[in-house]
Inverse folding.
């Protein structure tokens, strides 16, 4: 009796395992099925030399990339395009934040680090201790945008001093009236990116003189949370990357910033020509010189710099002027 | 006498009313859960149905929502499950058998027991930190499929052990006594008598633990499952991504199309969960009939 049952249960277990294994086998087949069909095509095209402009050498290997979530869309776009050129090179892109990315980069865990601000001295020291030498490449501009809800009808522009009054941890302003007399006496609701993001770091350094954002602000690493928070409240204000404003123009109003030369609204042109100062910032990738010795990393970085102009514009960032790209490429 | 009767009637009516009120209250309590699930499903399906296409299963992630899919995430989740299932089954059921059948009921066993119950309640992010230290750093397994799977195994082990123990406890003592009376050894008793009758309960526990594992994100974020992975892992040490991480990545993007893609991703995850839970129910029914 028991024996029979034991066998039966074994049988069912076995079928279960089989089902799983076949599911796995299918996927396995998919991989092996897909890659040979791709690879002959890939190896055939250079021999046919139908497209001599393509890189003739077939590369393979993993490229580990991590860092800023602001830069992620650009690197992802590049990685996606690169797959068409070198299908066997596997770039994997993470989003640990600029700070988190440098931590891994300086521990030699990654080959390339995305950054929405330049590397800090203490991070550079970490890299040096670990013997990681690196090169910095500017890849595009981002216009840090200060935004309020579409319903907000009292703010048409803000000066840098007013930004400090609104956001700074040391500010005593409780209501909008404390910021400017013509504003209503409504409480200010501040939304800010979290302290691990490069966006926060940049704003903190450029505008707030490293005093930090006020403690009663709502912090979120997820920019969509900021968008939703601000869109829903007339008295709310936030800052984040230009791409998020662009996608949510129907819900948000961008505030022109007066940096001393009159209020300027962040647009493609004002960010590119630098007149939207001081909130237009360059974004970067860092690559390790040791990893650059690997042919696939070298090729990927080159491909990155050759294509980032069009790709960064496509995902909502502002390309650098051509001569800057040339100068950056000269570092390779 | 008459007054008494009236009083009684009143009291009965009161009790009846009380009864109905409570019944309605409990019904409401039950429906809140179901209602929440319905709202979730309807909301998700409305958002995600347009993107619930074959492309979702066959395409790799992309910056263009129209051609983005979650092939690498789905395959990553399935591979993880395939590693977690046998490992956690062997260790989990093994531990449960030891604790229930072999271990003496002394202070040490009680400490084990307390530890396991505590571990079952530890937040998942803590397992992520443990996995990062243990597998990624000490064992030098890097941020790979195998590190992720082992971390998840640690996460679900306590759940499986507790479930398996409950199932073993439910086997009547008479069964063991009968087996011993026939001259069977301890192992013969456990393997041929106790385990088969406890199996439905154990399997249910294991499958429910698996559905927990495929839905978890936090530990894998710690381990470093990456968000843009346009290849399938071929070795245990390859990098990987899983469904919840892909969903998280899509949700955090500015474009609404990606939010709809995320909804479609949630549909895939929900369907997988429902299939697993149905399997658990079917298995239980199947085995219970035989015993």
């Amino acid at each position: 009796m028991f024996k029979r049952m034991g066998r039966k249960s074994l049988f069912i277990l076995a079928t279960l395992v089989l089902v799983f294994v076949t599911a796995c086998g299918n996927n396995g087949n998919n991989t092996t099925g897909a890659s040979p069909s791709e690879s002959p095509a890939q190896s055939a095209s250079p021999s046919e030399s139908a497209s001599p402009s393509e890189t003739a050498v077939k590369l393979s290997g993993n490229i580990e990339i991590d860092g800023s979530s602001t830069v992620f869309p650009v690197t992802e776009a590049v990685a996606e395009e690169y797959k068409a050129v070198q299908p066997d090179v596997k770039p994997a892109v993470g989003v640990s934040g600029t700070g988190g990315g440098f931590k891994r980069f300086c521990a030699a865990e990654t080959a390339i680090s995305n950054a929405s601000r330049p590397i800090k001295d203490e991070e550079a020291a970490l890299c040096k201790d670990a013997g990681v030498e690196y090169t910095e490449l500017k890849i595009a501009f981002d216009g840090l945008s200060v935004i309020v809800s579409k319903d907000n009808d009292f703010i048409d522009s803000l000066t840098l001093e007013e930004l400090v009054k609104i956001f700074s941890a040391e500010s005593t302003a409780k209501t909008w009236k404390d910021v400017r007399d013509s504003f209503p006496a409504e409480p200010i609701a501040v939304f800010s990116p979290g302290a691990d993001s490069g966006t926060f770091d940049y704003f903190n350094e450029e505008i707030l003189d490293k005093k930090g954002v006020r403690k009663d602000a709502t912090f979120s690493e997820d920019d969509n949370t900021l968008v939703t928070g601000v869109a829903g409240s007339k008295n709310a204000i936030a800052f984040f990357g230009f791409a998020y404003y662009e996608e949510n123009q129907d819900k948000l109003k961008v505030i022109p910033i007066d940096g001393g030369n009159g209020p300027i609204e962040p647009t493609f042109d004002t960010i590119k020509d630098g007149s939207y100062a001081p909130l237009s910032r360059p974004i970067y990738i860092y690559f390790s010189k040791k990893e650059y010795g690997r042919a696939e990393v070298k090729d990927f970085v080159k491909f990155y710099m050759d294509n980032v102009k069009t790709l960064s514009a496509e995902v909502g960032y502002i390309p650098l002027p051509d001569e800057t790209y040339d100068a950056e490429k000269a570092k390779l | 006498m008459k007054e008494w009767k009236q009083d009684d009637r009143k009291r009965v009516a009161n009790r009846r009313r009380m009864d109905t009120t409570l019944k309605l209250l409990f019904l409401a309590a039950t429906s809140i859960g179901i209602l929440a699930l319905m709202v979730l499903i309807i909301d998700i399906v409305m958002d995600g149905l347009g993107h619930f296409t074959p492309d979702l299963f066959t395409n790799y992630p992309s910056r263009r929502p129209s051609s983005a899919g979650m092939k690498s995430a789905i395959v990553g989740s399935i591979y993880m499950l395939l590693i977690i299932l046998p490992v956690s089954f062997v260790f989990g059921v093994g531990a449960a058998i030891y604790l229930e059948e072999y271990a003496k009921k002394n202070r040490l066993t009680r400490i084990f027991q307390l530890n396991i119950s505590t571990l079952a309640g530890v937040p998942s992010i803590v397992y992520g930190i443990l996995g990062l230290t243990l597998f990624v750093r000490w064992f030098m397994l890097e941020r790979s499929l195998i590190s992720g799977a082992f971390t998840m195994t640690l996460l679900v082990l306590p759940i499986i052990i507790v479930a398996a123990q409950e199932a073993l406890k439910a086997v009547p003592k008479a069964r063991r006594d009968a087996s011993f009376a026939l001259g069977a050894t301890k192992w013969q008793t456990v393997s041929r008598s106790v385990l088969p009758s406890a199996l439905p309960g154990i399997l249910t526990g294991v499958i429910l633990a698996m559905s927990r594992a495929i839905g978890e994100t936090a530990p894998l974020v710690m381990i470093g499952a990456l968000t843009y992975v346009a290849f399938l892992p071929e070795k245990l040490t390859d990098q990987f991504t899983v469904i919840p991480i892909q969903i998280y990545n899509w949700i955090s993007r500015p474009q609404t199309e990606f939010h709809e893609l995320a909804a479609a991703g949630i549909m895939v995850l929900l369907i997988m969960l429902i299939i697993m839970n149905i399997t658990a129910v079917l298995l239980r029914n199947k085995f219970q009939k035989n015993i």
User: Anything to note?
Assistant: The longest strand of chain A covers residues 134-143. Chain A touches chain B through 47 residues (CB under 8 Å). The two ends of chain A are 75 Å apart (CA to CA).
